[in-house]
Amino acid sequence: MAAQSIYAVVILYNLALSMYLFLFPLYLDHLVFSPMVIGVLVSVSAVFQVILRLPMGACIDRIGQHNATKLSSATFLLSIIFFFARPLLPFFIIIQLFSGISSTLFWPSAQAYVVSMSHRTLGYRMGMLNLLTGVAGIVGPLAGGYSKDLVGPEKSLYVLLGVSVVLMLVTLALPRLHKGDTTGHTMGLMESMMVVVRKKPLYFAGIATFCGATSWALVSSFYPIYMQNQLGFSSTLVGLLVGLRALSSAPGGFLSGIYLEKIKFRGMFLGSILMGAAGFFLIPLTSHFGLQVLIICLIGFSSGALQTVALVFVGEVMPKNLMGTAMAFIGLFWSFSLAVLPPLMGAFDTLHASFTFGGLGVLFLVMGALGLMVRRDIV
């Protein structure tokens, strides 16, 4: 029952989140904000996540994954409600603040919840988590793109609101785990954070998480705008491409979870890095829709594999009473990626679009080399 419930919550949350991430930059573009302002606004949520992620993770270990997951869904719903205020810059900052708080709570608590379950192997559970996340991720952008084409960017927000309400209701029915749900009472917030920060192996998982988030930073900022304005694809086709990134991450995440029992962490990490870098380099080289489908699937598969590598690694090396804090710590790298890359891509975009995608490819290679240096003894 617990496994089915948390998987349902994850599906709905990522459905709402991916739809939100798709609509947000396009809605700002509809309001004629400049590319630089759009990049800054997109990154605001991630900036708040960088600040709050680790303290929130320590709080999760104290209040329990069950309560933290409910609070995250409520906060996300509140962020969507603010869309219906006046379309002014302060309200968009508030929206990003609440969505950032929601993410800092949801992903560490959901991941720690999955680790605490006894259903099958950890690799299978984390692979399934990423599989369902990816499947939900394709529906959100498709729904966002279709609703935008059908009723316009403003009325499409009502669809997003409806999904958020359903998410809240399903989260309220999430059962409490009898073991491993409320942990970390013997350690203070600052103490637990300092213990996690000193764990060197977590930096390898953090780098894998950063690289896994790079494709998210791309598709939630300038990728939809580039595909729509530069290549002339419709919103529905752009939504399909964005969704395919999420869908292709599903088999990447699931298969890496299954085969991590046979393939070393190091090899899985390196192969995923090379795959993702190749995809970024190829994006500006073609305007053919079919080839762009193959490229974004390559990037998505790499992203899913890197996320599972990070999650399984943390689940194996960290004790359960620090699992929320540890998941939050590697989530800092995810937030940092989303905070830094959109405005950086905006700056490169003012020069030439190819600089944006080529820069991401180079970044992937550099981070891959750094990850191998940090954890040379991974087996």
UniProtKB/TrEMBL annotation:
Membrane-related topology note: Multi-pass membrane protein
Transmembrane spans: 7-27, 33-56, 68-85, 91-110, 122-144, 156-174, 202-225, 237-260, 267-285, 291-314, 326-345, 351-374
Major subcellular site: membrane
Positions of the Major facilitator superfamily (MFS) profile domain: 2-379
Keywords per UniProt: Cell membrane, Membrane, Transmembrane, Transmembrane helix, Transport
Entries under InterPro entries matching the protein: MFS, MFS_dom, MFS_trans_sf, MFS_Transporters
Gene3D superfamilies referenced in this protein's UniProt entry, alphabetically: MFS general substrate transporter like domains
Gene Ontology MF annotations: transmembrane transporter activity
Record's subcellular location: Cell membrane
GO CC terms of this entry: plasma membrane
PANTHER family referenced in this protein's UniProt entry, alphabetically: RESISTANCE PROTEIN MDTM, PUTATIVE-RELATED-RELATED
Protein name: Predicted arabinose efflux permease, MFS family
